[in-house]
């Protein structure tokens, strides 16, 4: 009877759960709703240890909410378009759809086995036409609002994947996906105008301060990169130049008196336009070098400065001085205006450049005493302005902030400058030259130009290119599908061509959580009423690798949907949890290191519950888990100990717990009460530790205390089953059945805590009558003097000692001492 067959339990309960379908959201308004969201997976293979961890953590929350009586939305789907699937398919010579949908079935089966409390009725795949129909619809709506546009410009190009990449997908100059060095190409591409939302993306983070990891908020802020400063125009007077003045963006307009030269990005068009004819050859030579460097290299402060004098001068608008214009790679073409005023006295990179090329330095902020003697270079600190006056204005003596304000208003008066807020954030390049994505629903017509595919013709379905060569060639494989690409123009009926690019998969994943609320809705991307019911999602769990891209894009989509009047909130995720990484021997698991751990094998060896429990117990959810330090065998033993309790108690319904052992009852109620706090504060590992303690306490009560028949033992065992239902669903279910209950323990409801049993560890109160010790009482440490006196006076020992005498005085020092003086 006392052998726990884990495999048999898994086989048995999976079937029962499939029949009971206990986690389908009722969605009828009978209960308060809670949306538990987890980042949906790429179907690039079977589930791995990382999935096992994030899902185990996520499921604690979802299952807890069910037990607390909420109606829970816990959906699952697949981010099923994209390069990983496409590349894998190319390697195998298969259609990406075949590979993708096979993997989805494998992962779905693994999730079921792993016992995650998903609502299986809401499954979605972003590669299903019924889904991407609405991705296309949203694209068109964004375009109607001026938020999707096409432009010709230099873009990041991955020579390996043969496709463009968003800035966000270039990590330290390399393709985020394949690691190849990214180059630049001039191409016509589609963009989303995220920059229109830069300020709101910043402002709306404030309320998330308490519920999102501060690291993620910092990364988002940094990515948006707001800088306050000014635009300043420097006139150029050269016979070969017919363009506008050179406009710079500066965060330090107060230093403009010290601008002794200018630098334009060597690879910006402006550099070529400004360049004097006799310097052209030098610039060309220099550009060959520049194109080899990444943006990261170019911005590094410790990089030796290089550049070319363009042989032209500009006029400093406050000093009237003619200052030389240089081209260099330390100025980036696509940040600010692509040109700077160089202030070597106050900016270290400008200082180094000035020293290298013998350019003058004028300090405009007073450095502290001894600064120059100490070999001072650029002084970037604050101090009063110096050397900053002309006939009309003086900043001298002003602190930096005041000097900034003063000079901006002067520049504005003169029409040569303006206060300006600059953002690092770029528009989102969304078109890809690949097959496995949502086609961009645009037709290009010689007569009408860009024409939107009419809504009633959506989705623009991907053609079946089975057998076709999908290898990347720089243009989308769709361009070669003549039957698909050649269409009649929806506007004039003339010959036209479909746009052959597909959308970045980050477009698909920017709105899937809306779709979950009404996954089969056919009138729009989602039913606004359903979204109002469930969203914003109360909890989002996922990896920190999505801290910038996915979360920023999802937030952007939400704001646009808000502006379209489709949703009434501006942030999609009320609370965010980033789980740590599962590593092995101190390093990320990888094929090349040969330290991968196979989840399926782990489950076969230890069982689902032991793996889940190990993941949750390993440490705080945000911390990395080094699998080499884990012992799932210990989890197996603990689960057996817990399970044995249910056998000792048996299935006969017990008598009410009120009459049971008080010590054990207190332990049970305290554990359940603390568990509520621990789940709310996401200290799931402590929740497991406390459950383990309760199992031990119960075991002691059975073996050497009140014995198994005491109703307090049944109460404790039932509480253990319910607590375990958040972490180890099979064991919990098995215990619940052995305790004589119907399935499923997952919906049993949270135990009701009796506040009277939440007494803290008791203290001993000593009672003296006429100076003699007459009684000891166990009381709560926070008992009031009045309560203590009442307790003492009712005590039998005390009454006997008083023996009917008059009480003259009772001195109470709660909680430890009571002195009774008789007459
Ligand atoms: C003059 C100056 C004086 C500056 C000074 C700084 C300190 P953030 O905060 O990152 O926005 N800059 C502007 N555009 C640039 C570009 N395309 N490539 C490289 N550097 C660029 O930095 C803004 C400052 O970075 C600007 O303010 C400009 O240098 C430089 F004591 O102007 B500053
Ligand atoms: Zn036309």
UniProtKB/TrEMBL annotation:
- Residue spans making up a coiled coil are none
Q: Which GO terms describe its molecular function?
A: aminoacyl-tRNA deacylase activity; ATP binding; leucine-tRNA ligase activity
Query: Listed GO cellular component terms?
Result: cytosol
Main location per UniProt? cytoplasm
Q: Methionyl/Leucyl tRNA synthetase domain: from which residue to which, for each copy? A: 38-182
Q: Which residues bind ATP?
A: 591
Annotated GO biological process: leucyl-tRNA aminoacylation
Methionyl/Valyl/Leucyl/Isoleucyl-tRNA synthetase anticodon-binding domain mapped to chain residues? 665-784
UniProtKB keywords: Aminoacyl-tRNA synthetase, ATP-binding, Cytoplasm, Ligase, Nucleotide-binding, Protein biosynthesis
Q: Which Pfam families match?
A: Anticodon_1, tRNA-synt_1, tRNA-synt_1_2, tRNA-synt_1g
Motif mapping: 'HIGH' region? 41-51
Q: What class of enzyme is it?
A: ligase
Keyword Cytoplasm listed: yes
Give every Leucyl-tRNA synthetase editing domain span.
221-412
Q: Where in the cell is it found?
A: Cytoplasm
The UniProt catalytic activity note for this protein reads: tRNA(Leu) + L-leucine + ATP = L-leucyl-tRNA(Leu) + AMP + diphosphate
Q: What is its EC number?
A: 6.1.1.4
Which family is this protein grouped under?
Answer: Belongs to the class-I aminoacyl-tRNA synthetase family.
Q: Which NCBIfam families match?
A: leuS_bact
Spell out the protein name for this chain: Leucine--tRNA ligase
Give the originating organism.
Answer: Nocardioides panacis
């Amino acid at each position: 009877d006392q052998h726990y067959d884990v495999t048999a339990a898994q086989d048995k309960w999976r079937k029962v759960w499939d029949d009971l379908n206990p986690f389908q959201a009722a969605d009828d308004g009978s209960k308060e709703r809670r949306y538990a969201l987890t980042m949906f997976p790429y179907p690039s293979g079977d589930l791995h240890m990382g999935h096992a961890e994030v899902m185990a953590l996520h499921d604690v929350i979802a299952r807890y909410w069910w037990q607390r009586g909420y109606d829970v939305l816990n959906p699952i789907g697949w981010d099923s378009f994209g390069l990983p699937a496409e590349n894998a398919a190319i390697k195998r010579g298969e259609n990406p759809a075949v590979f993708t949908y096979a993997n989805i079935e494998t992962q779905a089966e693994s999730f079921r086995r792993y016992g995650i409390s998903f609502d299986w009725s809401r499954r979605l795949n972003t590669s299903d036409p019924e889904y991407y129909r609405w991705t296309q619809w949203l694209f068109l709506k964004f375009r109607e609002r001026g938020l999707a546009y096409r432009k010709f410009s230099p873009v990041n190009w991955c020579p390996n994947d043969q496709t463009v990449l968003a800035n966000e997908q270039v990590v330290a100059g390399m393709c985020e996906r394949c690691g190849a060095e990214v180059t630049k190409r001039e191409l016509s591409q589609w963009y989303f105008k995220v920059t229109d939302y830069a300020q709101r993306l910043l402002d709306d983070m404030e309320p998330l301060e308490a519920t999102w990891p501060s690291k993620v908020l910092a990364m988002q802020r940094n990515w948006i990169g707001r800088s306050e400063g000014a635009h300043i125009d420097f006139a150029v007077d050269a016979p070969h130049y017919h363009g506008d003045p050179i406009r710079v963006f500066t965060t330090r307009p107060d230093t403009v008196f010290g601008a002794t030269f200018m630098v334009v990005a060597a690879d910006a068009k402006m550099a070529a336009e400004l360049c004097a004819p006799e310097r052209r050859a030098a610039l060309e030579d220099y550009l060959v070098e520049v194109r080899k460097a990444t943006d990261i290299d170019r911005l590094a402060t410790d990089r030796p400065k290089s550049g070319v004098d363009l042989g032209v001068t500009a006029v400093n608008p406050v000093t009237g001085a003619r200052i030389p214009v240089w081209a260099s790679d330390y100025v980036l073409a696509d940040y600010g205006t692509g040109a700077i005023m160089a202030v070597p006295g106050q900016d270290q990179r400008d200082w180094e450049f000035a020293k290298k090329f013998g350019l003058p330095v004028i300090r405009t902020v007073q450095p502290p005493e001894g600064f120059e003697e100490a070999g001072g270079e650029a002084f970037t600190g604050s101090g009063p302005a110096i050397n900053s006056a002309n006939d009309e204005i003086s900043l001298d003596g002003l602190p930096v902030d005041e000097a900034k304000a003063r000079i901006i208003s002067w520049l504005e008066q003169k029409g040569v400058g303006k206060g300006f807020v600059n953002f690092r954030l770029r528009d989102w390049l969304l078109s890809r030259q690949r097959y496995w994505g949502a086609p961009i629903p645009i037709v290009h017509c010689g007569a009408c130009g860009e024409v939107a595919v009419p809504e009633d013709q959506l989705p623009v379905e991907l053609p079946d290119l089975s057998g076709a060569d999908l290898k990347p060639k720089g243009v989308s494989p769709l361009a070669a599908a003549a039957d698909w690409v050649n269409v009649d123009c929806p506007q004039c009926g003339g010959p036209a061509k479909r746009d052959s690019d597909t959308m970045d998969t980050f477009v698909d994943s920017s709105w899937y959580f809306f779709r979950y609320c009404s996954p089969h809705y056919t009138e729009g991307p989602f039913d606004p009423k359903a979204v109002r019911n469930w969203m914003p999602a109360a909890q989002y769990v996922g990896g920190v690798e999505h801290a910038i891209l996915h979360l920023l894009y999802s937030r952007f989509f939400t704001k646009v949907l808000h502006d379209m009047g489709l949703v009434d909130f501006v942030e999609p995720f009320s609370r965010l949890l980033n789980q740590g990484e599962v590593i092995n021997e101190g390093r990320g698991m990888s094929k090349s290191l040969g330290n991968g751990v196979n989840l399926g094998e782990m489950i076969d060896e230890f069982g689902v519950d032991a793996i889940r429990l190990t993941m949750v117990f390993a440490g705080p959810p945000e911390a990395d888990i080094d699998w080499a330090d884990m012992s799932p065998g210990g989890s197996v033993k603990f689960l057996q100990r817990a399970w044995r309790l249910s056998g000792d108690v048996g299935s006969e319904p017990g008598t009410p717990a009120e009459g049971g052992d008080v010590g054990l009852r207190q332990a049970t109620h305290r554990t359940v009460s603390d568990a509520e706090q621990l789940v709310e504060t996401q200290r799931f590992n402590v929740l497991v530790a406390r459950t383990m303690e309760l199992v031990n306490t119960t075991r002691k009560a059975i073996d050497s205390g009140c014995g198994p028949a005491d109703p307090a033992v049944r109460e404790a065992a039932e509480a253990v089953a319910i607590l375990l239902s958040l972490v180890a669903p099979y064991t919990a279910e098995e215990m619940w059945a052995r305790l004589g209950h119907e399935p499923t323990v997952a919906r049993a409801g949270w135990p009701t805590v009796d506040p009277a049993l939440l007494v803290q560890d008791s203290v001993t109160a000593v009672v003296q009558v006429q100076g003699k010790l007459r009684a000891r009482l166990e009381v709560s440490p926070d008992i009031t003097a009045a309560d203590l006196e009442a307790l003492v006076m009712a005590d039998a020992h005390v009454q006997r000692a008083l023996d009917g005498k008059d009480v003259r005085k009772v001195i109470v020092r709660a909680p430890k001492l009571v002195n009774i003086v008789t007459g």
